[in-house]
Amino acid sequence: MNRVLLLAGKPGAGKTFLIREAIAESKTKAGGFYTEEIRLGGLRQGFGITSLDGQHAVLAHVSISSQYQVSKYKIDIGSLDRVGVGAIRQALSEQCDLIVIDEIGKMELLSPQFREAVWQAINSGKKVLGSVVLGPHPFADEIKNHPEVKMLSVTSSNHGQVMGKILNWLETDR
Questions:
Q1: CATH code, 157
Q2: 99 and 106 Cβ atoms separated by less than 8 Å
């Protein structure tokens, strides 16, 4: 059985929703983080990052100042390293059954510390549930092709099927 389960799909397909619902439903002891859109007046302004123990920061936003940028969003690498990388490292050192990494995307992959933490999680022997950028990216493609990784495609119409697969994977021992 694959220890790493990664969801891929277009933005808004429901990857984060499925991950959060599966964790809540399975009662698995998990550590890690998820990202969510920041909206103002119905328009996406950026992304927040939240650890499963409640730490929160702005990951990317149209109005912050940063040398790092993806599309129109400036990336706060310090917040990513503090909240995201910190959450992965904490999950690695604690008695967590599951490490959540939502997501392994273009913004997050700008951080060398993040890339290192992702590899540590994948090679830790613990289960990893996450999402990954859909399109090609050298680092993400290397992860997608890792022998421990199983990929699931998420669309707006297959949530029930994907949720069943995630829950079954969470309940199955290695």
A1: 3.40.50.300
A2: no
Tokens 């007046």 correspond to what residue?
A: 41
**pLDDT value, residue 1:** 74
Counted domains in the chain = 1
Mean pLDDT across the stretch 118-135? 97
Q: What angle do CA 129, 91, 136 make, to 5 degrees?
A: 40
Polymer length of the chain? 174
Q: pLDDT grade, residue 138 (50/70/90)?
A: very high
Q: Would you state the pLDDT for residue 63?
A: 97
Residues 64-84 have a mean pLDDT of 97
Report DSSP state, residue 172: S
Q: Range of 118's domain?
A: 4-171
Q: Which residues of 26-48 are buried (b: 16+ CB within 10 A; e: fewer)?
A: bebebbbbbbeebeeeeeebbbb
Handedness of CA 149, 87, 134, 168 (dihedral sign): positive
3-state secondary structure of 24: helix
